[in-house]
């Protein structure tokens, strides 16, 4: 059996053909020179790689580049970026196998997509549920409905400040983490390698055992509450009932199939309601796979799409995660979360960070680069559909039906941020004007011609035309420029 070269995001057993297959791991410093990493992502990846090197017949090669570390015939599973695939193809005697670590096979996706004009998550998700027989009772969806989103869009419970679910058990760092920390400090000091964000205790699994423990804990204690508050935000509870499993799944420590099976089993055993299990499975079998396939299905130029002609630069305070410069409570808290943990859940990414960037017309490619370097679970394949498509609408709607633009009213309904904020979500003009509310109307006004044909925006655009103070809103936003709100 040829030795299997595992990239650092292919660390679990499902990337091998047999448990005792010999493995090559490459720790390349050049990777950290090529692009900035969040300090905690650099730690997580190195820690995961070095922990993996202790399991079985593993050769860990420390090299400047991948190419110089490859010296024998190898097999490798299809990597997760075009650049890495190009590299593998150029190397002699490295056989590339189909991708693993996702649920739907590429030919199935291509067949599904080829039959459609519009690529929508809901259609793909139903296809995948049937194809893989997940949450199905015969030919029908379990519980008689495909989509329980209606039940899963609750505002956060008021008053408590946090959800009544146990937080994930803390990770206990070991001597490998200690060595990684020492090495990263040295690379920053002596080798000119720069990181984003702050260092901190490791929050996410670096080993298969840690990842399985987190999965078990999530399914037992947090999945039951996952559904209703999936879209809500609480200032005092960054995790809420989210799984925090994306870094472990993206490192390949967990197979998405086993994660989905665990959630379905909990539902079938009566330990989790359908809304929670369905909502969670939709994220993995649906969204995660959809986003992965779109990365390969769309042409490489999709990454640079810019249908709304957004050309603004990211201001320094945002690029450098300077949360202390921000007074808007939601944005300050979310930016601090990115700086201090490299992770916030889906709604802060989409509706606080992405929404702010899109309202201000920042260049989508730069926003995608920012997400890629600022998050512990950031990978190139995740950026295109999530950032370029969904959050910036830079593809003009190839994968979503409308831009995810929202004003302060949405943030007020779905979070407890506005209560303690110096801005008022209802106010558009003046010292108390909420930057999201003013930004929302400014965005609609700027793009009215492109968005006029979108029936989902008919009412907001009618509202825009009735705004008596639109000129004042636009003038105020011009004056704000790129200053932190
Ligand atoms: P949960 O809410 O518990 O969801 C379960 C799992 O579903 C996640 O672990 C993840 O594996 C998967 N998932 C859900 N939605 C998506 C999605 N849209 N794309 C891919 N996987 C999904 N996810 C990343 O893994 N890496 C990223 O760099 C990333 N960047 C994002 C940027 C933007 C602007 C947006 C809108 C979303 C991004 N996502 C990204 C998707 C999603 O926000 C995260 O997967 C999720 O917040 C991770 O937290 P969790 O594990 O607690 O997720």
CATH top-level class of the largest domain? Mainly Alpha
Shape: globular
What's the overall average pLDDT, rounded?
A: 95
- How many extended strands? 9
Percent of residues in β-strands:
5-15%
Radius of gyration: 23 Å
Main beta sheet: 5 strands, parallel
Please bin the fraction of helical residues.
40-55%
Strand order of the largest sheet: 4-2-1-5-6
Secondary-structure element sequence?
A: EEHEHEHEHEHHEEHEHHHHHHHHHHHHHH
Contiguous uncertain segments of 5+ residues: none
The CATH architecture assignment of the largest domain turns out to be Orthogonal Bundle
Ligands and ions found: flavin-adenine dinucleotide
How many domains is the backbone divided into?
3
CATH topology of the largest domain: DNA Cyclobutane Dipyrimidine Photolyase, subunit A, domain 3
CATH superfamily of the largest domain: DNA Cyclobutane Dipyrimidine Photolyase, subunit A, domain 3
| Termini gap | 59 Å
Coarse structural class:
alpha/beta
The number of distinct helices, counting runs of at least 4 residues, comes to: 21
Region (Disordered): 141-173
Organism: Actinoplanes ianthinogenes
Pfam family, one: DPRP
Protein name: Deoxyribodipyrimidine photo-lyase
List its salient traits:
Serine Threonine Protein Phosphatase 5, Tetratricopeptide repeat; Deoxyribodipyrimidine photo-lyase; globular; DNA Cyclobutane Dipyrimidine Photolyase, subunit A, domain 3; five-stranded parallel sheet; 9 strands; alpha/beta; 485 residues; single chain; binds flavin-adenine dinucleotide; Rossmann fold; two-stranded parallel ribbon; UV-DNA_repair_photolyase
